[in-house]
Amino acid sequence: MLALSLPSVPRPRDAREECARVKPESTGTTRLGRTAGASAAASDLRDRGLIERIARQDRAALKELYLIYHRRLARFLTRVTSRYDLAEEIINDTFWVVWQRAGDFRGASYVSTWIMGIAYRRGLKALKRASVAHAGAQHDVGEEGAGSHEPWSAAERREWLSTALERLPSEQRLVLELAYHLGYSCEEIAEIMNCPVNTVKTRMFHARKKLKVLLPALAGMQPQTLE
């Protein structure tokens, strides 16, 4: 029987392990972590300076911050919405909020986490408002996948993963995108989503369970054939 190689996210044993930190295995890894931490701190210091200027209605500072974060937000929001135009609309809404509320930022988190939190909330509203559901564009690959003896292409696997993610509830899909594509920790995602860390872990756990069923179904196979 041909083994099905589907795209997947890391597979923890339960929800408590979703965001477990991996301890450094060597001095080199430790130095790398410190370097990354120093870089993040320097970036945040720069961002805080821009936020202070934006709070004083400095449009040049807003433009600079927009250019810094546009690519990251566009990548995240385009993956979530599957629509570039909607992603751009959400980004514009996000920076309008940043312009209005820069003076309210108290520095309790990284500026990047604060901005991503605004984008998350605006994105969630946009998804509900636009009812982004591509059911009509989804392909029925069941019979073709079940009867084929050719390996599935990487493009097909990516399409199945994208389709499966679209079928998840918004909160679960966004958790996976934030964690596995943008690299946020559970603690940071909890700040972005304004919810307890355990809620983040639970959403990740249930999202993975649903993907385990959806991915084989899209390939025309039964979930148990993957075991």
Please describe the structure with a list of short key phrases separated by commas or semicolons:
mainly alpha, Rna Polymerase Sigma Factor, Chain: A, disordered N terminus, 9 helices, single chain, 2 domains, 227 residues, Arc Repressor Mutant, subunit A
Unreliable residue stretches: 1-16, 21-27, 132-150, 223-227
Structural class, by secondary structure, is mainly alpha
Average predicted local confidence, pLDDT: 74
Strand content: under 5%
CATH superfamily of the largest domain: RNA polymerase sigma factor, region 2, helix turn helix motif
In whole angstroms, the N-to-C terminal distance is 13 Å
Radius of gyration: 20 Å
Percent in helix: 55-70%
- Structure summary, number of beta strands: 0
Describe, in plain words, how this protein is organized in 3D.
The chain is mainly α and 227 residues long. It has helices spanning 27-55, 59-81, 84-101, 111-130, 142-147, 154-166, 170-181, 186-193, 197-218. It has two domains: 39-130, Orthogonal Bundle (Rna Polymerase Sigma Factor, Chain: A), CATH 1.10.1740; 150-227, Arc Repressor Mutant, subunit A (Orthogonal Bundle). Helices cover 67% and strands 0% of the residues. α3 packs across α4 (111-130) and α6 crosses α9.
